[in-house]
């Protein structure tokens, strides 16, 4: 009986796979060991490759950190577009948005991004490069989402303010993971955030003016 051989992967496919393995290994180490201890040697060990192979794909640690940020932007964009918000105005929709953002920005994996931002502060030139790279990539990712949330707020300006406020709160809340808080703790504070945003929108009169049929998919 003949066995079917799997087609050999192309050089490009092998390159993409190895780079993905290295990026994921870097994310895990950043989230668990921190920026200072995420060395090229530790990354290579975590990924199961030689340091020579690592440097073949990413000549410097800086290049690998930028690749992590690129992958994070791709992941955030996919998750922002992955879930539909029920077509109803009010607190229920706001809570869905809050929960959805928490699943993106409140998870342990996202801490890798903060490790890079915080860890590069000692190198002013690299830190500025990281901030500019992050601002540009995330502007492209978040802009389509802001167009959607604008229907809930009634104005582009308020949409940006609400979105930034939710992110600031969620990112701050994510720090409580280091204090070993339980799931009920996070759920309670996410509910408070949704209540506050709903109250803010009701106070401005925007939620009452937003027809249910105009609320977009998130």
Automatic annotation (TrEMBL):
Keyword Cytoplasm: no
Keyword annotations of the record: DNA-binding, Transcription, Transcription regulation
Top-level taxon of origin: Bacteria
GO MF entry, a single one: transcription cis-regulatory region binding
Classification via Pfam families: TetR_N (PF00440)
Transmembrane segments: none
Domain named HTH tetR-type: residues: 16-76
DNA-binding region: 39-58
Protein name (record): TetR family transcriptional regulator
Organism expressing this protein natively: Neorhizobium alkalisoli
